[in-house]
Amino acid sequence: MTPDGRYLVVRGRLWRRSDPLLTEEQRQQAVNALMDARRAVAAAKRADDDTALAAARAAVQAAKEALGERGPVWWDDDEPDLTRHPARTTPYAEWWASVAGSD
Question: End-to-end CA distance of the chain, in Å?
């Protein structure tokens, strides 16, 4: 996790964390919705159902937005969303170099 708690780093890329201001109940509801939506994506793919696939992907997007992982950022200091950026090319580069080298 980045020092400011905004991102996780997976394979060198930044991924936005869930909004820490969500209550445990809100977070769990959104996680449950996300898991249901991901199962629906898989089922739609197996069924080769494009309409169901589009609906399931929209449900994934809605759940990710509810978690704060997509859509408007959950922080309020006007810093940009760096999701998917390589950590080494962001303001976190120095921090990332120090932790990536310690593995």
Answer: 14
Give the global pTM. 0.87
| Interatomic CA distance for residues 78 and 24, integer angstroms | 26
Site of tokens 């820490």: 20
CA distance 95 to 83: 16
Which pLDDT score, from 0 to 100, does residue 100 have?
86
Extents of the domains making up the chain: 22-68
The DSSP-derived string for 12-76 is TEEEEPPPTTS-HHHHHHHHHHHHHHHHHHHHHHHHT-HHHHHHHHHHHHHHHHHHTSSSS-S--
* Residue 13: both structure tokens together: 């890329």
The DSSP 8-state label assigned to residue 90 in this structure reads S
> pLDDT digits over 11-51, tens only?
999 999 999 999 999 999 999 999 999 999 999 999 999 99
Measured CA to CA, the distance from residue 74 to residue 76 in angstroms comes to 7
